[in-house]
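Below is one protein, fold included:
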Amino acid sequence: MAARAGARFPVAVTPLVRKPRVRKSLLLLPLVLAAALGLSLIDNGGPLGRALAATPGRHLIRARTHAAVSLSDVALVRGVTGGRSVQVTMPPAGLSLEYPLMAQYLGTGACPPAALIAELLRLGSPPLALAGLSQDLTAPSGALTGPFPSWETGTLYPLPAAFWSQLHCLLSAARDPLTVGINAKTGEPGWAAQMVTDAKSAATGGLDFSLGNEPDLYYLPNYSSLGRTRSAGDPAAVNLYLQVAARLAQALGSSALLGPELAVAQHWRRQLPRVIAQLHERTVGVHVYPLSACRNPRAVTVRGLLSAQAADAPGGLGWVVADANAAHVPAILSEANSASCGGRAGVSDNPAAAVWAVRFVLTALKTGFREVRFHFSGGAYDPFVVRGGHVFGRPLESALVALNRWLPGGSSLETVTGVQGLLATAVNRAPGGARLIFDNESTRAQAVVLRSTHSVRIEVLSAALAGLRAQALRSQHGRVKLIVAGDSVVAVSSRS
């Protein structure tokens, strides 16, 4: 498959395609089984590698369908530069949690469960946002007293009294930067001022705020209307949001602002530059969900999640990046996940979600977004769950761990062209990170020869098996062979 649009990796990629028949079925059986697990590797120095070296047509691997698997020869070299590259300036994968869920995970003690702190550290202390639908349904602790003047006020969520002190304990240990969502739909300036004061008492590694969640959907009578065609870019509606946001922003003082947290950025395409300028956004944040579980959950499938359309969803928002660049501020996908409305069980919590997440984040970064924040709502798409003081990871969690380790701050990405059957990305200037990332969008395994004088370490995410699996491979005569299974992602790093 052709590489996605992007910079070229400035080193020769030589296709090696052989088509003689291979009749060593017993010899190839381990390869087929390993390919099914996404860990189908050929170590030149191992028994299987030596056996293949003595086998005619050894560069051809046949799957059960007897379809040939092409082979490319790729150099793994240090310090590759040149061509257009994309800089990694933030942790690629951040987190966005609903307020009630965060309160639940903080527990009942003075400090949150040690397992939650350990999980955030394992993820690399990424940015942590308190946002989502509950943002516009939350009131500060103690703000709701006496009889409620309306049904809307009576259904708001009051923050527990210990929320911010518990959060401070969490952030003191984990050091995650914090984004705090302010209620712009039902809130008041006094509430915003209290939230700002409380948030400042909790934050330890950086703090910014967002004013309202998905204001382009404020016109909807209910969320069953999601996805229906209607112009939400009415200047009058945008003006009303800007008036409310400007009043709330007075409570922020000089604090940084992130937004406008649009559900569908296209709704306000003509108005976005004005919103960025008038609110003095320090970071432009919009939401993206490639699939929708709101109106037709049955349409959310594993094959749909693994499709190029789901992986490439951020690519259609290059104009948001351009608007942010024009304002000299970064753009991020401040809320995203596999499918809207909490995802779908069996799909969003499937190992395929990890493969999708890597593809989605790479596309976002190459489009110009600096980060993707994965949403938690208590639904099927949450990367992990906290119960009884224990953290239970789901397949998506493995991708977040991998992304923040493979793509450290200061590294850069370039698209490698010419690798047959694979999408390949070079990661440069990444001590301890990945060097190459291979993505096989096909269901058929693809073989690769790496030219390297050093041994290499590979890490695999597969749609067939949950978890991030690793293995070291020895270099023999300056070459290492591996197979990238169908619907899997393999990251290669150097070993001295």
The chain has two domains: 13-85+412-495, 89-223+231-406. Residues 1-70, 77-83, 223-227 have pLDDT under 50 and may be disordered. The first strand starts at residue 13 and ends at 15.
